[in-house]
Amino acid sequence: MNDQNPPAERRLPPLQLLLVSLQHVLLMYGGAVAVPLIIGQAAGLSREEIALLINADLLVAGIATLVQSLGIGPAGIRMPVMMGASFAAVSSMVVMAGMPGVGLTGIFGATIAAGLFGLLIAPFVCKIVRFFPPLVTGTVITSIGLSLFPVAVNWAGGGSGATQFGALHYLGVATAVLVTILLINQFMRGFWVNVSVLIGMALGYVLAGMLGMVDLSGLAQTPGLQVVTPNHFGAPTFSLAPILSMCLVVVIIFVESAGMFLALGKITGETVDPQRLRRGLLCDAGATFFAGFMNTFTHSSFAQNIGLVQMTGVRSRYVTALAGVILISLSLLPKAAFLVASIPAAVLGGAGIAMFGMVAATGIKILQEADIADRRNQLLVAVSIGLGMVPVIRPEFFAHLPQWMEPITHSGIAVATISAVTLNLLFNVLGGTERSLLTGASH
């Protein structure tokens, strides 16, 4: 009977539901904890205070994932979406952390103001869905996959902190994870394919442990239970420049999220109309507003989890809803969160190469729905993907542009999206109108 339901509404057997949900958590966990780690270090916090930042982020990410997956009131897109702290604001927040009179409480204040700003503009931004035909959506999704590849490669080589980046033991573990995923997808069916990433990562974790790559030092000193309380670092403070910078970040997050929601709609077979897009953006903004009070930062949808949806073929929103519950549980159980955080980067790298590639492959598949034989459309794809790769290949390329532009220029997804939408307007919307007038054709 489940098979008669739309893919997003299907309910899985309990064990399969749990395992697929765990895959989502393990995939996004590294990204979720990276932002509070970076900002905590920039703000000069102690190890205990940084741990609290991480737990706060997991709590808000879990609640926001639940809202996005199940929908509450006017918010939540009701598709399999994972939420977490956004990287779009990292560079701006690092600067704020060192600014006199701003610091951590100023970052939280700017986050609250930006969340409120997002709630106000979401009903207007959702109308941009008509500017995302398959030509634009396919280009953006391909760019998402390509921009994530360096993350997977960095993981596979041992991660940013590796003393011997690219050493054989890192590459061996990443290869073992990737080969396991490929073999399961080739020779097995159903349940096993759905949890192939989890099996590959579990095997990789065991192999990494045997090679001495798993560090569990500090686990005994980690508290068993910890509850995140609002405004732990003091009442939020509000300064104009940080607020304006963070409001710009929210606009960029909305652009990225719109592309990701439309991508997910294509993968799940769900229609993402302006009303549904508004619900998704309201959840992004609401999570950011709430995050400022709960000692964490701007939140958005995680692109890498879209690859997992495509990879496994499991498109049920109840999977990510349970993943949200797991994130909330991890925020309350620091020992459990510690164990998840101990997964070596090389293990994530092997899985990431397969999943991020699947995102790019989805974009290429969607591009087949567009008139890609048209030379101008080919140019749109080529230029947009090329520009989207600039911040990925040379992050310092835009270093001499105004600092307020950093949330845009540091995001390959944002650059590719803006380019694709602009060129589509130029080539196909405005250009199409002019050609219709010249030829007397009606459309």
Automatic annotation (TrEMBL):
PANTHER family: PURINE PERMEASE C1399.01C-RELATED, URIC ACID TRANSPORTER UACT. It comes from Stutzerimonas degradans. Belongs to the nucleobase:cation symporter-2 (NCS2) (TC 2.A.40) family. One of its GO terms (cellular component) is plasma membrane. It comes from the Bacteria. This is Purine permease. NCBIfam families: ncs2, NCS2_1, pbuX. It is a multi-pass membrane protein. InterPro entries: NCS2, UacT-like, Xan_ur_permease. The chain crosses the membrane at residues 17-38, 50-67, 79-99, 132-153, 165-184, 191-213, 233-255, 318-340, 346-367, 379-399, 411-430. GO terms for molecular function: xanthine transmembrane transporter activity. Keywords: Cell membrane, Membrane, Transmembrane, Transmembrane helix, Transport. It holds the Pfam family Xan_ur_permease. It is found in: Cell membrane. Its main location: membrane.
